[in-house]
Write a structure and sequence with these properties.
Oligomer: single chain
Structural class: mainly beta
Shape: globular
Distance between the termini: 40 Å
Strand content: over 45%
Number of helices: 1
Length: about 130
């Protein structure tokens, strides 16, 4: 089992930045692909970004490409999501997730992960 705990959410003005962190416990994440998803009020969960277990490949939703950066520090068992140029439409609960494989098609559909955190709220004011 992998337990995931997100942090770093909060209230920020449009155009600002936040960095989310996700600390894993229970197992090392070296062999897990790690992703971020989000769910806005009244909407379905959507894919944001994923990083391959090797760290050599990343993939982003078109809506965040060029503004968000996913990274990982396996020594700290932690994954990050740097969010810049935030927009009000980025407001959502952000979830960290882990997958023993790398299933990009499933991620884009909003799922495909084996383990999920409980989320951290990001609110972007206009």
């Amino acid at each position: 089992q992998v337990q995931l705990v997100e942090s770093g959410g909060g209230l920020v003005q449009a155009g600002g930045s936040l960095r989310l962190s996700c600390v894993a416990s229970g197992r090392t994440i070296n062999s897990y692909s790690m992703g971020w998803f989000r769910q806005a009020p009244g909407k379905e969960r959507e894919f944001v970004a994923v990083i391959h277990w090797s760290g050599g490949s990343t993939y982003y939703a078109d809506s965040v490409k060029g503004r968000f950066t996913i990274s990982r520090d396996n020594a700290k068992n932690t994954v990050y999501l740097q969010m810049n140029s935030l927009k009000p439409e980025d407001t959502a609960v952000y979830y960290c997730a882990a997958d023993r494989l790398y299933r990009r098609t499933a991620y884009v559909a909003g799922g495909g992960m084996d383990y999920w955190g409980k989320g951290t709220l990001v609110t972007v004011s206009s």
